[in-house]
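Researcher: Predict the fold of Phytanoyl-CoA dioxygenase family protein.
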Amino acid sequence: MTATEYEPTLTAEERELLPSDDDVRHYAEHGWYLSKKIFTDDEVDALAAAAARYYDGERDRRLPVRPPKLAYWDPSRGPVQRHNDYVHHEHDGLGAILRKPLIGAVAARLAQADEIRVFQSTLIYKPPIDGEPSNIVPWHFDKHYWASSSSEKMLTAFIPFHDCGEEMGTITMVDGSHRWKEIGADDTVVRHFADRDRSQLEEMLAENAAYNGAEIRKIPMVIPKGHVSFHHCRTYHGSGPNVSGRPRQAISLHLQDGDNAWREYPLSDGTLAAYNHDVLVRRTHDGRPDYADPDYCPVIWRHRAQQGG
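Model: Structure tokens for Phytanoyl-CoA dioxygenase family protein follow.
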């Protein structure tokens, strides 16, 4: 696909912000991509203001049930790193900006997909507290938590609300790790990194690198305001402490291609891997959770040929 084949709702200026062919090749080889400035300063400031209202308790709707593995910080948890899922669903101010077609068009170019839907959105606040254990995000990759998803093209957009560099504990990629053959995986990998031993995750990264004869090359994403870091669902990533003296605020916007669907993924105890969507989304005609439910997984980009015009 070329840039000219995209749905003509993008302006000429926005089309200039799409990844080039070289950028798409870089993403395929390295597993990450740092975008051009795809959000204006006003849009980023609006995200930050909406996040502040969200933390003050503002909601446009609530989840009808609480999924079993929901990340949902509230003030009772204190000054730890905050993670709040489903913010695109619960808060219209956040959701409207996160559904910007340009971010979907960028993701579609990288994933070589005709359609991009939201999979999840997580509001993140990393406090400027030296030595806070929750500020360290150990090495992991997202597909482990998405075992019930059929796609291998899923990706994540990391959207900071400010310039974000190493001193803030920016997201850091293990270059090219999405192409590694995985060894040593068991049922524990479907648990979130916050529920696993950090040293075990470090060992898994080292073992997989050694098996693949690969160097562990860590690339901190230095992200100017309005730019976005994208990474493949199998790219190992993590983040370090925030020593900047001010909060690191961002949204991780997890994205799925149009072909993604729920699949059976058996675990060793005979149960099936599950995702939080499974208790929320509508069902398909044959009773499976529908990861295309527009209430939770709205389309943010569709190639114009898929729209019948």
